[in-house]
Amino acid sequence: MRVVREAARLAETAADTATRRAARATSGGQSAAEAAMHASHAHALDAARYAKLAVEDHAAGELRPLPNYARSAIASCRLAEIAAGVPDTTAPLTAALEAYKSPQELLEEAERRSRFELEYEKQQQTETGMDALNRAKRYRDVGTAEQVIPMLGWSRQMVRVIQHAADGRLWVDSSGTARLINRTGAPGRVVAAARVRLLRQAGYLSSGSDREADTFLLPSLGAQRVLYLAGLHPDGIHPDDRAAHAARFKAALRDRRGKQAARNTAARLPQLDRWAMRHADDLPVSLAQQQEARAWSSCSSTGR
After folding, report:
1. Which of 20, 80, 262, 284 has the most C-beta neighbours closer than 10 Å?
2. pTM score > 0.85 for this model?
């Protein structure tokens, strides 16, 4: 009885955690957080139902079903924790329950658990295109993006400039004007000078050579990090340069600076700190990318 009650309690705790996360979620992650909350609560209700049945049967002297109720409550608790994204707390309950199991029961339980874990992992890989390790890395990076991106005061147009630079399309001509390389490989449309200057002054763009003209502009490591994080949290990017500047000015005022100091601060783009750059060299990799890397490695080995 202690095991089944504790499983119901832990499941309820996981569901409560999912509810708090849904309440704090930003608009970009709201739907996913609410889906996790509903799934966790559904499993928590299942765990509570098994606990209620166990109490009723125990009061009636029906003891044989109690281990099954306990196992079901533990399984529901684990599902509630998975949905809520919290650590597994059911191990002690499982250990306590297994102390009462026969060797045959232990074997059957291990087989059921193995099948469940395989099916769950298969489902998650189908939905996300990633294995468990890389899903965890992406979840980590989404959390970083939700904290970092709104603080930068970037516009969508700035992000596009960095993307063009990353694609090798941002060219500075002999007059010092930034242009996009068109499909024919020739310099084409002019890129807003003020926007490029802002990005260059902050160190997010630099020339690909020792020349300041007739050269490509390339994104810095910090710019590549912003580009990646912005893709994970696009709601933190402002619709245009004016809105981005206003956000930087407002943030500077919140730091209790005078208006002139706030204007000076807003005229520059902030740098990424060490915390924002952490894990920049440990990005999640999809299953397709892993397969492509293996194929490339195999071809290279064969070529040698």
Report:
1. 80
2. no
Write down the domain spans for the chain: 2-140, 143-282
CB 134 within 8 A of CB 279: no
Helix (H, G, I), strand (E, B) or coil at 69: helix
Type of residue at 191: V
What tokens appear for 1 in the block?
Answer: 């009885």
| Side-chain-side CA neighbours of residue 47 (13 Å) | 29
Rounded CA-CA distance 149/235 in Å is 9
Any idea which residue has 């650590």 for tokens? 87
